[in-house]
Amino acid sequence: MQPTTTITSAPEKPSFKEAFLFWLKLGFISFGGPAGQIGIMHTFLVEQKRWVSDSRFLHALNYCMLLPGPEAQQLATYLGWLMHGVRGGLVAGILFVLPSVFILLGLSAVYVSYGAIPWVAALFYGLKPAVVAIVALALVKIAGKSLKTWLHYATAVLSFILMYFLKVPFPLIILGAVAVAVVLRKIWPSFFQEKQETTQQTQNEQSYYLNANSPVVGEGVSWGRSLVRFLITLALWAVPLALFYFFTRNFAFWQELISFFTKAALVTFGGAYAVLPYAAQVTVEEFQWLSKTEMIDGLALGETTPGPLIMVLAFVGFMAGHNQYGGNLAMGAVGLFTTTFYTFLPCFFFILAGAPFIERTRGNLALKSILGLITAAVVGVILNLTVYFGAAVLFPASVSVDGLDYFALAWMVISFVAMYRFKVGMIPWIGISAMAGLGHYLLLN
Predict the structure, then answer these.
(1) Tens of pLDDT along 113-146?
(2) 93 and 344 in contact (C-beta within 8 Å)?
(3) Residue in 388, 383, 363, 385 with CA at minimum distance from that of residue 155
(4) Cα(354)–Cα(230) distance, integer angstroms
């Protein structure tokens, strides 16, 4: 007797309410950085609910990584759009960020109000070396997955040298990587040949609501409609700027803040770890909106909240408004909301205006080659971030043997080993690190 194969029937299109509740839940549980957030979405949308097949999920992810901005938030927006159009994309993208906005606002207010209290400072003292270890761990993981050829390794090394030693701005490095990829693909295409990765066969592709054989979503969207969405984005960009112009006395500050974070949002290839060195370099050293220590504390706060790590920029906006207006918490909140708005506005445009065309470009090898070299350049940038923050934590006073903080060095190593070798979760380890800092303070006092 021949065994019969059971094929699971495809689920019905998820209701908007059902999807809404998932995106809301995701906004509160999306810890663990992009890898953790993408994993949560894959587990729920692909494995449990079978709303989206692996092939469609990975296709969306690959192109979100090519775009500037936080890839996990853009992936949520993309998948929300695939299932429920523009309103689905807006709801998914906004709810992915919204909980972390208010959580970070509360933490930022507590930080500037009580951060000088010894026991509060002790908590952050333990967090700082753990955060450096988290960044180093991200470097190891991303490098292991993205550096596939000698060209990728050379690009990563050159990227680090240009940014760390020659202070070349991050956007120029990305543009350079794109130019090199385009030129080399035309002259020596063999440089981009990689080992064919083994991929798991998608079983029962038809058992997903959205699968490889589903009609192309947004096929009827024209360039004209995308132009309309671009004009709407420009109008939304201009509204807060106009309000600051007419209702504040310090318009120059808000204009500078809006200009910088708009620029940062447009060059954040590789996510938060890639853009933070650029943001730190400009906001700390050039604009002097906050100190290097406050920037590191902001990174620690960003690691403790759900949502994309790029929310660290919202903390920078809070500190900028807070310090500019003499310690005013309300203006700090305005700075945080303004920064969040301008950081994520381009993300929605890239997906809602570009996704219909992205859906029509499956299998485009030229774009994949450019993406690969950009990712390699980002590895060098992340190495720069690791060194930048590591030096600030290990040598808080001066870069010398006498200035070395031995507790920070020891806890940095312990943190890396705990998370890399023993797979301790990032969120539990952040709590352990805060307690270690407090214990160190109590032991010495």
Answers:
(1) 887 668 877 887 888 888 888 878 878 877 876 7
(2) yes
(3) 383
(4) 10
